[in-house]
Specification:
single chain; alpha/beta; Trna Endonuclease, Chain: A, domain 1; five-stranded mixed beta sheet; two-stranded antiparallel sheet; 15 helices; 9 strands; 49% helix
Length: 333
């Protein structure tokens, strides 16, 4: 999109939606997008009374369009909140390279020449940069530091782009509905994952939404955290599980659970009661597990913590702030 275009607000929203859904992999409705943009741009008239004004014609500059897309992508967790669309080299370092006889722009040009050689416009696909980097290193046109910095700038530019590339259209998996995170159990396409990475990124951007996610997806989130920490994880059936949602095993000894976990996706203010703590301890004893944990999006009542300390139960707690930390540690862009 160059300069400025004149179009109806509805067309603007649909165009932004196409970009955002493919870039983030999270499927939202036009109403949800309008809500996001209304919050991000409260002084803009483009998103007020959308149903009433969607037929109105507006003039939008390219930088405005990019700003709308960036904000929506950040809101959905695909881009970091402090993501800057423009990449610039350190000026002092750049000057030193030039004085040393190296031109980063020459390296940049060589990258695109080699990428053009492997690009097939009839069958577009993602390009593996490894052999290209290896070739440029062999040509000795610049030190490795410059080559890697140039590659980083190219990747950053592609990440920042709001143009949907042909390869992205072909490889797009259809996305996952944002509503599913809150409305029902969502089983990821990958059998190796308990929860989709896109949901983790969204929750990292909106940790306040943890308490509203579907309880089963919270169990999956907890399972994913322990799996990434190197444990064997068995996710319970979700109902009639006797109060044990997850069984965590040591990879070297699967004869009995290392940790039993009970997940409580509660809203703020609905703290886990002392009766729950006492009851869960009996499950730990019954299964002969080394320890137990109650993971909750809310908190444990002080009495629950006190009884554990006094009776020396092998029981720990992961409350709201720690759950937020789990999510932050699992984010990937």
């Amino acid at each position: 999109m160059m300069g400025a275009v004149v179009l109806r607000i509805e067309s603007l929203i649909n165009t932004i939606l196409d970009v955002v859904v493919i870039k983030t992999g999270i499927v939202i409705s036009d109403r949800q997008l309008v809500e996001i943009l209304s919050n991000e741009f409260p002084y803009s008239d483009n998103f007020k009374d959308y149903e009433k004004n969607k037929g109105h014609v507006v003039r939008i500059r390219s930088e405005e369009f990019d700003g709308f897309c960036f904000s929506a992508r950040k809101s959905l967790g695909e881009l970091d909140k402090d993501f800057a669309p423009f990449f610039s080299w350190n000026v002092d370092k750049y000057s030193e390279w030039i004085e040393s006889g190296y031109d980063p722009l020459k390296v940049h040009k060589r990258f695109f020449e080699l990428m053009a050689e492997v690009h097939n416009p009839d069958q577009p696909s993602l390009i593996d940069p490894t052999p290209i980097v290896d070739q440029i290193i062999k040509e000795k046109i610049a030190p490795l530091e410059i080559i890697l910095d140039v590659l980083q700038s190219i990747l950053h530019t592609q990440k920042a782009s709001n143009t949907v590339l042909p390869a992205e259209e072909i490889l797009w998996d259809g996305g996952i509905p944002l509503n599913d995170l809150f409305a029902k159990e969502h089983i990821p396409l990958s059998e190796q994952a308990f929860i989709d990475q896109k949901y983790i990124n969204y929750l990292e951007a909106h940790p306040e939404q943890l308490e509203y996610m579907h309880w089963r997806n919270f169990e999956r989130l907890t399972a994913e955290f322990f799996k990434r920490d190197g444990y064997d994880v068995v996710l319970g059936p979700g109902s009639n599980d006797g109060g044990v949602d997850l069984r965590i095993y040591d990879e070297k000894d699967t004869s009995r659970p290392l940790i039993l976990i009970q997940c409580k996706r509660h809203k703020s203010g609905n703290d886990v009661k002392i009766e729950t703590v006492k009851s869960f301890y009996s499950d730990i004893e019954f299964e002969g597990a080394n320890a137990g944990m109650i993971a909750t999006t809310s908190k444990i009542v002080p009495g629950g913590k006190k009884v554990v300390a006094i009776r020396k139960y092998p029981l720990s707690f992961a409350e709201n702030e720690e759950i937020r930390d789990w999510v932050a540690r699992m984010k990937k862009r």
